[in-house]
Amino acid sequence: MVTPTAPPKTGEPPMMTGSGALLKSLEILGITDVFGLPGGAIMPFYDELMSQTAIRHILVRHEQGAGHAAEGYALAKGQVGVCIATSGPGATNLVTAIADAHMDSIPMIAITGQVFSTLMGTDAFQEVDIVGMTMPITKHSFLVTKPEDVPGVVAAAYHIATTGRPGPVLIDVTKDCQQNSAPFVWPDKVDLPGYKPVQKAHGKQVQAAAEMIAQAERPIFYLGGGTIRANSQKELLKLVEAVGAPAITTLTARGILSDKHPQNLGMPGMHGSVPAVLGLQESDLLIVLGARFDDRVTGKVSEFAPHAKVIHVDIDPAEIGKIREADVPIVGDVREVILDLLPEWAAVKKTAKPLTAWWERLNDLRENFPLGFTDLDDGLLAPQGIIQKIGQMSGPEAIYASGVGQHQMWAAQFIEYERPGAWLNSGGAGTMGFAVPAAMGAKVGQPERIVWAIDGDGCFQMTNQELATCVINDIPIKVAIINNSSLGMVRQWQTLFYDGRHSFTDLQPLEGPEFIPDFVKLAEAYGCLGIRVRTEDEVEPAIKLALETNDRTVVIDFIVSREAMVWPMVPQGVGNSNVQYARDHAPSWDEE
């Protein structure tokens, strides 16, 4: 994160409008890019924004797109993302993205206009209590009614969003606050009573963790998204290699440990690899770093890793013991804890039990249950192979943003991630429509990288209007639509658990026009390069053309089988030991 530098204090503080103070505050914080859509209640700020050159404003086509773009920017660049909207429906359209950022601990500042303070509480035109609405899904929500309060509030919002467990902060600014003037005084420091995130862990707890690791015969590292938020990649690699235990990376932690690393068993959970899922189940010690025991990882909690002790490291004390009791609870920044743990481990390493038998078991699982897929007999393309080819041809330095559903799981499974920030997705909230605007934000933050939006035809139709934003603002992303003419993940569950009754999951009519809409024509209408791929021999040339086209956004419509399913799978409500490798591959299970 950027360390704010306060302006030198010389003479009397300058008079500024609330809008000017808001803009100046963002400049001091090092904000260079924002995503937004103007309206009546935020108009004074936009008037101020027009006359400056320090901050680039990206005009989106929907406020939800602004929010997801700010998320993608933050995830790819490692800095706070900023989105802006007006009052009423403008503000409420940000709510989905704010909730998404909250669930995945993404540092974001959402700025909304509000009606005149004198009109608040009167049901004025486009008045909505957005502060009240967002309290459960932000780290904090501010209402600013006086221009003299703006610098302190913005400084506090940045501090809250970027320290401790990162997350979204909302600043709601009344229109009269934006218009009125006051001296601009930047705070010397931010001191918020009651907000003191713990960075360094208690030494006794770290020592106990090292001793417990040494005593374990089947330890496993359970790595969550907090490891990425803590920027702990280098330190984590040292620890994993020093201990020699296997590791798994959750959906939001993909890339923190390279998929090529021999100790990485892959992704755990509902659609995780068999070695990762059973590795957790059969372990005797979970070394949990920056993870929160999400239900998609644990399955039935009472049956999750039943014989394992738990070392749980998290910067948020509320997560410790929330789902699974920790034998060694450690509150602190993951990176700082690892730095303290490394010398403690070195001191006890000679007493550690050998892990030979443990690795023999895990390598046997790897050999017998490799990640793969089979082509279906309907003559249509296998989506897994397309996504795998995109990853192979684009490489580890590219960025891949996905929507939510089957294509999300295939992208998590079949692209090899070798670095943090390469994989962007909506993990906790599961927000359809995330991919295109998040990819757009990532491209703004990392313009030199190849950025793919891997989307489903359902997700794409929720936010594809941001293609116009990409074209007009010269943000050339690449979009791969995995088009199975249905809401694929819901359809998969209907096939497996509802006797194949596909209730309202077909997005295309069974009879009539083949494409509603025609994504190629839609892409061309937006000024993008549109490509349709139906056959295997068209896949690689289409991806190659997309990679060679950097003067505009590219949209590839891959026509794939609607019968393809995501495997392995653990259904909701059962234990992870019931993981099914493929539909007709034992063990069997029933949904509870």
Verbal overview:
It is a single chain. With 592 residues, the protein is α/β, with parallel strands linked by helices. The protein folds into three domains: 15-183, Rossmann fold (3-Layer(aba) Sandwich), CATH 3.40.50.970; 203-368, Rossmann fold (3-Layer(aba) Sandwich); 383-567, 3-Layer(aba) Sandwich (Rossmann fold). It is built from 23 helices and 19 strands. The strands form four sheets. It has a six-stranded parallel sheet, with helices on both faces. The chain has a six-stranded parallel sheet with strand order 15-14-16-17-19-18, with helices on both faces. Helix 16 runs parallel beside helix 23. The longest helix is centred in the first third of the chain and has 15 residues, at 63-77. The model is unreliable at 586-592 (pLDDT under 50).
| Cα gyration radius (Å) | 25 Å
The CATH homologous superfamily of the largest domain is called: Thiamin diphosphate (ThDP)-binding fold, Pyr/PP domains
Strand order, main sheet: write it out: 3-2-4-5-7-6
Main sheet specs: 6 strands, parallel
Helix content: 25-40%
Structural class: alpha/beta
Q: So what's the CATH class of the largest domain?
A: Alpha Beta
- What's the total helix number? 23
Fold blueprint:
Layout: E1 15-17, H1 18-28, E2 33-36, H2 43-49, E3 56-59, H3 63-77, E4 81-85, H4 89-92, H5 95-103, E5 108-114, H6 130-134, E6 140-144, H7 150-162, E7 168-174, H8 175-179, E8 181-183, H9 203-215, E9 219-223, H10 226-229, H11 233-243, E10 247-249, H12 274-282, E11 285-289, H13 295-298, E12 309-314, E13 328-331, H14 334-348, H15 356-368, H16 383-394, E14 399-402, H17 406-414, E15 423-424, H18 435-445, E16 451-456, H19 457-463, H20 466-472, E17 478-483, H21 488-497, H22 519-525, E18 529-533, H23 536-548, E19 554-559
Parallel strand pairs: 2-3, 2-4, 4-5, 5-7, 6-7, 9-10, 9-11, 11-12, 12-13, 14-15, 14-16, 16-17, 17-19, 18-19
Antiparallel strand pairs: 1-8
Helix pairs in contact: 1-2, 1-7, 3-5, 3-18, 9-14, 11-14, 12-15, 16-17, 16-23
